[in-house]
Amino acid sequence: MKITREQVRHVAALARLALSAEEEETLASELEAILGYVATLDELDTEGVPPTAHALDTGPVFRDDEVRNGPQVEALLENAPDRAENFFRVPKIIE
Amino acid sequence: MPPIARRISSGFRRSSSEGDRLKVDLSSLTLATAAERLRRRELSSAELTEAALERIAQTEPRLHAFLTVSADEARSQAAAADARLARGEPLSSLDGVPLALKDVFLTRGVRTTAASRILESFVPPYDGTAVARLRARGAVFVGKTNCDEFAMGSSTENSAFGSTRNPWDLERVPGGSSGGSAVAVAAGQCLGALGTDTGGSIRLPAAYCGVVGLKPTYGRVSRYGIVDYASSLDQVGPFARDVQGAAILLEALAGHDPLDSTSASADVPRYASTLRPELGALRVGVPREYFQEGMQPEVESSVREAIAVLESLGASVENVSLPHARYAVATYYLIATAEASSNLARYDGIRYGRRASGASNLLETYSRSREEGFGAEVKRRIMLGTYALSAGYYDAYYGKAQKVRTLVRRDFEQAFERCDVLVAPTAPTTAFALGEKLDDPLAMYLSDVLTISVNLAGLPALSLPCGVDGEGLPIGLQLIGKPFGEQALLGAGYAYEQATDWHRQRPEEPS
User: Fold this and answer.
1) C-beta atoms surrounding B357 within 10 Å
2) Is A5-43 a CATH 1.10.20.60 domain?
3) How do the domains of chain B map onto residue ranges?
4) Using CA atoms, how far apart are residues B126 and B123, in angstroms rounded to an integer?
5) pLDDT band (50, 70, 90) for residue B292
6) Do the Cβ atoms of B390 and A38 come within 8 Å?
7) Please, what CATH class does the domain formed by B31-289+300-322+413-504 belong to?
8) Is the model's pTM score more than 0.90?
9) Nearest residue on chain B to A44, judged by CA atoms?
10) CB–CB of B407 and A49 under 8 A?
11) CB < 8 Å to B360, chain A
12) Distances from the Cα of B450 to the Cα of A39, B292, B455, B470, angstroms
């Protein structure tokens, strides 16, 4: 299957990934090669085969609804790229 | 640089210059013998830890197995362990034993990067469960080991901070993605290490570096507090010099964790103390699809020889078939990348990790932080996974792969109706040269052709040394078990070690 630069740009936008023109070019040909390889799966008739999402099916898991304190505010904010008081500071989102 | 000379030694020899300087030679110890000498107080944890740190300082310029060496922390952990040992109150048999952690394990107060620029200065505020369990048992952490970025790779060359080198030949890769952990154990920089295995990331480097590596059953060890790659495939596991060391570590790591709803509540056997030198009546299956054209002849002959050893110890051997094995790599690269594209969406430059400067709005902050923070392989997998999940392609790619995953799993279920353990090579070749597969992602992906099915099926598998090729490079034997069949794998591996010497080989000093 042919992968175009247009498609690469569309997928990159979905993935929130900025790419250089050179990366777009390389990724188009690499994705095309990899998708060509995974097309071998089309040899298999999987009609009626149930999908596997998890190898070992344990069913639903429940836990008691108890309050548990994780790391505190200051500990979490220490890794913030930008902060103000007890908040993460981000660029303005309303134009 | 020509390949360095290698020797096959008992591991008890030490070079004179090193012997003069150090009281303890880590290469003469295993995890179990070190633990025993600590318990008998013939050695202190401080001595062991200093020997490890000294060894790291001496070999790191060549090997680059570590991204962070936590010397101060290790020294204070060792001092605390020695105080407990002096009182006769060790926390466990791991108390005071120096270990290393792949840099995807969150460690409270110690930088955790996943070998990525996007997490270059991330210092976790908490320990993941595997780390917490080892810490509670008194283990000493000497540092965080190099790996492929976000555990995506088979050579450790995808690290944002430079490749790790194979101690058996500095011009070759250690395998990946947990390459630094395998090297740290092989080169005597520690006595055991943790890795993660999503498609072979413990077993492949174990094979390439001549050490033991165990990928437990999916859910056997909690994944809480590891940097996620592909959540339905990731599993935590140990590296050690021998099977006994791996068994001791697994016993410490395994068990249900309320913080990981996919962790299993199955009982944890006493993996280490139940090891017996006799093999007993073991039914061994040999999957014919795992001995294919293109396999290095010495790998095949060493593995066939190992099977003969198991047979001589009393195992019955029969051929089995895993007809969908050839579809496993394609299935994996759709499922793993789809899960990765979702897992890695959290790296957006807002709450932690790298944020691009100068972005004028929020969307640009996301996309430019990710552009700057992720390396080429991570971008490739995010793109492939996003594509496989995108509207119009979901059924054809992700949905199809999930169905083929069922077929791969059923192959194993059928084989295990007649066998207890499957035996195969861990990889079709020994360690390849640095750079050899960097420009060809597909060739790199195919390094995992013999390990990947196991992750799709959620099974446990052990890699242990079973020979060397003509260049003196280690060859790995892979034992694959039923779900929660780790005991059978460790038992077979232990019996094999009692009958052979391959696990005693050490690489020549890389200096």
Assistant:
1) 12
2) yes
3) 31-289+300-322+413-504
4) 9
5) confident
6) no
7) alpha beta
8) yes
9) B404
10) yes
11) 91
12) 20, 10, 11, 22
